[in-house]
Request: fold
Amino acid sequence: MTRSAARDAILVTGGRIGFAVLWFLAGTLFWLAVAPLPLPLTMVAVHAPELPGDDWSWAGTRR
Reply:
């Protein structure tokens, strides 16, 4: 392998590793931005008022 080919191989490998690292960071940041979005809907569902005449608790036991 010539010196030029070795340098090219190192640059290509480094580029691939750099791309993988950037791709991972972008995915992580995207996940951190998108994952919390359903939380308000979950809180609304959990804390929703109970219907009149509903004698069942959230645990599924009769009050």
